[in-house]
Amino acid sequence: MFWKRNKLNLKSNDNLYEHGNEHLIEIRGVTKTFQTAAGAFPALKNVDLRVDHSEFVAVIGKSGSGKSTLINMIAGIDRPTAGQVYVGDTAVHKLNEGQMAVWRGKNLGIVFQFFQLLPTLTLVENVMLPMDFCNVHKSNEREKIAMHLLDQMEMADHAHKLPSGISGGQQQRVAIARALANDPPILIADEPTGNLDSRTADSVFELFEALVKQGKTILMVTHDRDLAKRVTRSVIIADGEIIEESLARVFAALSSAQLIAATHKADPERYAPGAIIIEQGKPNDHLHVILKGAIEVVKRQADGSDLVVATMRPGQYFGEIEMLSGAPSIATIRAVDDVETVMLDQVAFQKMIGESQTTRAEIDRIAQQRLAENRGAR
Amino acid sequence: MIAPRWRKIFRDLWSNKTRTLLVALSIAVGVFGVGTVTHTFTIVQNEMMAAYPKSNPASATLYLDAFDDSLIQTVRRMPGIADVEARTALNVRVRVAPDEWRPLGLYTIPDFNASRINKVWRQGFYEAAPAFGAENGEYPPPDRAVALERSSLLIPGMLPPGVTVGDTLEIETIAGQKRTLKIAGLAHEETNFPAPFMNQAYGYITLETQEWLTGSRRSDQLMIIVADKTLKQKEINALAEQVKTKIESGGITVYVVQVPEPGKHPLHDLFAALLLLLNGLGFASLLLSGFLVVNTISALLSQQVRQIGIMKAIGARARQVVGLYLVMIILFGVLALIIAIPLSILAAGQLSLYLAGFINVDFPAFTIPPNVLALEIAIGMLVPILAGLFPVIAGTRITVRAALNDYGIGSNTPKQGFIDRALMRVRVLSRPTRLSLRNTFRRKARLALTLTTLILGGAIFISVMSARSSMVQTVEDLLKYWQFDVLVQFARPYRMEQLEQIARAIPGVERVEMWGLMNARRMRAEGSEGGAILLFAPTEATRMIDPTISQGRWLLPEDENAIVVSNTFLTAEPDVKLGDTIILKIQNREYPWRIVGICTARFGASGVAYVNYGYYARALNEVGRAGSLQLVTTQHDPEYQAKIKRDLDEQLKKQGVRVGFSMTSGDIRTQNEMFFNIIAGLLIVMAILMALVGGLGLMGTMSLNVLERTREIGVMRAVGASNGAVRRVIMIEGLFIGILSGLIAIAIAFPLGKLIAEGIGAALFEQSLSYEFSLFGATLWMIIVILLSALASVLPAHNASRMTVREILAYD
Ligand SMILES: Nc1ncnc2c1ncn2[C@@H]1O[C@H](COP(=O)(O)OP(=O)(O)OP(=O)(O)O)[C@@H](O)[C@H]1O
Ligand SMILES: [Mg+2]
C-alpha cells in the first residue's frame, strides 16, 4: 500500500514523483472556503506553490491573510475545497483521516506557535510520543533517540522535567526535537518563534538553518521580516493569494490588492542563455522583473560593435523606459544564463502606475537615472 | 517499559485526582446502587426460599373452639388430608417493668418431638442478641418454662430488659392468675409473623405448662397438610371448608379458616414491595450514574481537546486516540469497582441483616454471589464505556485544525441565539450578572446535561420524600376511620342490652355502640360462592366510623338494602361496580344489596361491607342483637385503651360471653405503623442516597464547568476584573443552574411522586395512597442544591482566581 512507503524518495532518473509532480511540494489551484456565520469566506484562492527539496521557505503575510491555512493544506491538517496538494509521492488531498495521520507522523514534523507539549508527560516522553504512535524505531531504542534529539536542541539536561518547568523558548526547542522524532524529511512550522524574544527566536532559527543544511525541507510561517530575509525564499500571501515575491520586493509601495492584481497579470517567461529578450530599435510592450539568472544590457555602438553597459540580477526590472515613453527600445537585453522573468503588459503596467503615485515616481526615477547613465555611456 | 501514550493516561489520572475521583464516584454510584440491591435480594431470597419449605408450612389453619384429640383423628381420616396437628394459642401478660405489663403469646406444642407442621426449631446462639445466652438454652422447654421465639428479642420493650436464659418472667393469665415462667431458651419459627410485626413477644410451652396455666389440655388451632401438594389456594380453601363443615357438624364452632398461598412466606408480599422499591432505587442510581458519567467524561474530553489535536498532528490515528481514552474510561471503571464493590458488600450485608431480622429468616452466611459480582463488574465497565463512547468518539473526531485553532477565547461561540439576546436585554440585571447568565447558556449541550443530572437527582429525592409523606398521610387517614378506642367482636351475636350493661359498668368507658356483625359470602350470578366478607351493621347514628369514600356515598339513615363495600372486596370480585346489586349469603340465606358507595378499607384487610342496622336487623331477624361492640374511653393513650380492653375482656368472660377477637385502636396503629415504618424507613434511606448522589453530581458537574472555563476566568482577570467580580460571576452562574434545576425538579416531582406513591400503594396495599406532596422534601432539596452549587462553583472559582493570568492562559 502506498502509505507504507517510508520516505519521500526522489526518483533520480527523471526527477518526477509518482503523481507527475516535479517538485517535492506542489500545490495546484488550491482553494479553501470556510463556511462562517457571515457566509462563505475564501481563505485561499486558487493558490499554486512549489517547494523543492532542501529549500527553506518562509511564508509571510498579514494576520488573517491565510498563512496557516496554506501550510495546514500541506500538513494535511486541513483539506482544500478544491485543488491538489502533492507532497513527494503522496497526493495529500486524497488521504483519509487515518492514512493522513500515519503519513503525517512519518513524513512531516510539525511545530506550532502555542501549546506544543502534553503537560503530563516529561520532555523526553513528549519526544518519544510520535515514535510510539507511528511505531517508528525499536521500542527499546526510542528513549535513546529522543535523548539524542534533545541533546541536539541543547535540552538534554531538562529531559525529565515536565513542560511547565521550562521556559517558552525551551518548550519550542523540545517541540522541534519532537517534530524530528520520526526523522521526517519535511518540517512545517507555524510561527514557531511567534511568542519568543528575539534572541531565543534567533537560536531557534539557527536550528532550522542547521536542519536545512542536513537536507531537511522547511516551510515556516513567520511575521518576522528580519528572519524572513535569511531564508532561501519567501512566499507572500495576501487575502488568500500568493503574491509574486519579486513584484512585491520591487514595487514595495503597492498595496496588497494592487500586488495581487499585478501578480494576476504577470506572465512568467523563461529564456535560454544568450537569448535576446528585447532588441534595440524594436518596440517593447512588456515590463520584465528578473526572478532568476542574469541579463546584460547591450548597446549597439555607432561602429556597429556591442557594448555591455549593465548587468541586471533578480530583483531588478527592465523595459520601463519604453513602456513610459512608447519609443522603440534603446538597448538590447540578452540572457546571460538560464533566466526567468515575469512580465507585465502595457495595460497592467499603466494600471499599476496609475493607481500608485509612489510607484510611478519610483519607476520614473529609475528610468531617468538609467537614461542618464545611457547618455554617459554614449 | 510502558509506552509514553499510556503513561500519559496514567499521569493524567494521577495529576488530577479530584477529577479522577469524581468520575470514578459517578460510576461507583450506579455499581453500588444496583450491586447492593441485587446482592441483598440474592442473599435474602435464597434464605427465604430455602428455609421456608423446610418448616413444612400448614396448608390451612383453622381457629376453633377448644377441642380434644378425638377431633384430630376425625379430621386426619378425611379424604385429601395428609396430616393434622393441633396447637393452642394463649394470651397472657408479662411484667416488663414494675408497673408495666405487655401482652405475651404462648403457643402450646403438644409433643415437641413429634411436631411436623409449622415446625419450630431450637435456636442456639443468636447474633441479634448475643448477651441472651441462647446457646445455653434447653429445648424442648421443660414444664413451667417457655422457649421464646427469637424475634421477640429484636426490638426492646416487649420483654423485661436484659432477660437471659434461666431468668423468670412474671406473667398473668386471662383469668387473672399470677405465675412465674422460666425462660428455657430460644426457638425459631419461620411460619409465623415475626414478633415485631405482632407487637408482642411470644414463645412455646408444653401441654403440661398449658394445663398449669389454664387448667385445660384442650387445643384451639388445627393445622392441616393436604395430601395433594399441587393444589392451588382455591382448591385448598374448598377442602378446608369441608373440614370446617365436618367439625361444625360435631357442634364445635370454627371461627376462622386461614389458607395462605401455598409455599408463600407470610411476609412475601411485603418483601415483594420492598424489592420493587429497592429495584427502583437501584435503577434510579444507575440512571443518574449514567448521566453523571456522560457529563464528567464529556467535560474531561473537552479539557483534552488541544492535547487530542497535538497527538493527531504528530501522527496519532483517531483509532489510537479513541483507544487511549477508552482505556482511561476503563481505568475509571476499575477504580469505581474498587470503591463500589467493598461498599456494596458492606451495605448489602447490613441491609440483608436488617431485612432478615424483620423477616425472621436465618442470618445469611456471608457470601458474595458470583452473579452479583459479575453484574457489578459489567455495570462498572459497561456504563462508563456506553456513556463515554459517544463523547470519546465525538471528542476525538475533531480535526487537528479545529482542536488547535487558537482564535482566542470564545471563538467557538455560536451566533448570538435567542436566549443571549433576550438576556442582554433584561436591564434589571447588572451587567456582570447578565454576562454570567449568558455564559451559562453558551454551552447548551453541557448545560442540558448538567441540568438533566441535577433535575433527575432532585426529582427522585423529592418524589421519594413525597411517597413517604403520602404513606404517613395514608396511615393518618386510615386511623381516622375508627373513632373508637376498643373493639370487641363476638363469636356469635348477643343481646345488645346485656353487652351494653357490661361495658358501661366499666369505669373509664365513655360511649358504647353495638353493631351487627355477620360473616357473608357473595353469590355470583353463575351460582358459585365468592370470597368471605365481614358485614358490619352500624347503628344509623354511628359516631364511631369515619370512612374514606372513594366512590359513591356513605349510608344514609333512610337507606334500606343499601351497602357500602370496601375496595378490597372489589379486588376479590372484580366484576362488581358501584350501583350493582349483589347477592350476599348470610347464615345460609340470600339477601340482595344495592351498592351505594365504595370505601377504603384498612390495609391488608379482607373484604368488608357496611349496611344500616335497622334494615339489617329486620331482614336477618336479628333485632336487638349485635356481634360487635366498640367503645370510646375517657383517655385515648394506648396503655389506657389496653387496660380498658383487659377489664372488658375479663368482665365478658365472667358473664360467659364468648369473645372472638378484641383490639384497641392503639393496636391497629402499631400494627399499621410497623408495616409502614419499614417501607418509610427504606424510602428515607433512598432519599438520603439520592441526595448524596445528586449532591455529588452537582459538585462534580459544577466544578467541571468552572474548570473548563479557567481560561475565560484568566481573560476576565486580564481585562481587569477583580477576584471578587470573577467569583461573583461564577457563583451567579452556579446558583442559577442550581435553582433552575431545583425548580424543574419540583415541577417533575409532583407527578412523579404521585406515580411512585401509586406504585407503592398498588404493590403493597392494592389501593392508592392519599397523595401528599412533600413540601419539606422540596424545600430541603432547594437548600441542598443552593448550598452545593454555591460551594461547587466557589471552590474552583477561588482556585482559578488565585492563578496568575499567565498560568491560566497556559492552562490546559
Ligand atoms: N475555521 C475557520 N472558519 C472560518 N474562517 C476561518 C477559519 N480558519 C481561518 N479562517 C479565516 O481564514 C483567514 C485566514 O486564516 P489563517 O489562520 O490562515 O490566517 P493567518 O495568515 O495564519 O493569520 P495569523 O497570522 O493571524 O495566524 C482568516 O480571515 C480567518 O478568519
Ligand atoms: Mg496563523
Layout of strands and helices, then pairs:
The complex is a heterodimer of chains A (378) and B (812).
Chain A lengths: L24 E12 L2 E13 L4 E6 L5 H9 L6 E6 L2 E2 L5 H11 E4 L11 H12 L7 H11 L15 H12 L6 E5 L7 H16 L3 E5 L3 H5 L3 E6 L2 E3 L1 H6 L5 H10 L1 E5 L4 E3 L7 E7 L2 E6 L5 E7 L4 E2 L1 H6 L6 E4 L3 E7 H10 L1 H21 L1
Parallel strand pairs in A: 3-8, 3-9, 6-7, 7-8
Antiparallel strand pairs in A: 1-2, 1-4, 4-5, 9-10, 11-18, 12-17, 13-16, 13-18, 14-15, 14-17
Helix pairs in contact in A: 3-4, 3-5, 4-5, 9-11, 11-12
Chain B lengths: L3 H12 L1 H38 L5 E8 L1 H8 L4 E17 L2 E9 L11 E4 L21 E5 L18 E5 L5 E12 L5 H4 L2 E5 L1 H8 L4 E8 L6 H17 L4 E5 L9 H36 L1 H9 L4 H42 L10 H28 L2 H5 L13 H8 L5 H12 L1 H38 L4 E10 H9 L4 E15 L5 E9 L11 E4 L9 E5 H6 L8 E6 L2 E11 L7 E5 L1 H8 L4 E9 L4 H17 L4 E6 H44 L1 H9 L4 H43 L9 H28 L2 H5 L3
Parallel strand pairs in B: 3-8, 5-7, 13-18, 15-17
Antiparallel strand pairs in B: 1-9, 1-10, 2-3, 2-6, 2-9, 4-7, 5-8, 6-7, 11-19, 11-20, 12-13, 12-16, 12-19, 14-17, 15-18, 16-17
Helix pairs in contact in B: 1-9, 2-7, 2-9, 2-10, 2-19, 7-10, 7-14, 7-19, 9-10, 12-13, 13-21, 14-19, 14-21, 14-22, 19-22, 21-22
The structure holds adenosine-5'-triphosphate and magnesium ion.
Description:
The complex is a heterodimer of chains A (378) and B (812). With 378 residues, chain A is α+β, with helices and mostly antiparallel strands. Chain A contains 12 helices and 18 strands. Chain A has helices at residues 67-75, 97-107, 123-134, 142-152, 168-179, 198-213, 225-229, 245-250, 256-265, 320-325, 346-355, 357-377; strands at residues 25-36, 39-51, 56-61, 82-87, 90-91, 108-111, 186-190, 217-221, 233-238, 241-243, 267-271, 276-278, 286-292, 295-300, 306-312, 317-318, 332-335, 339-345. In chain A, the strands form 4 sheets. Chain A has a 6-stranded mixed beta sheet, with helices on both faces. Chain A is elongated. By secondary structure, chain B is α+β, with helices and mostly antiparallel strands. In chain B, 53% of the residues lie in helices and 19% in strands. Chain B is built from 23 helices and 20 strands. In chain B, the strands form 2 sheets. In chain B, strands 2-3-8-5-7-6 form a 6-stranded mixed barrel. Chain B has a 6-stranded mixed beta barrel with strand order 12-13-18-15-17-16. In chain B, strand 12 (509-523) and strand 13 (529-537) form a beta hairpin. In chain B, helix 1 (4-15) packs across helix 9. The longest helix of chain B has 44 residues, at 665-708. The radius of gyration of chain B is 34 Å and the shape is elongated. The two termini of chain B are 27 Å apart.
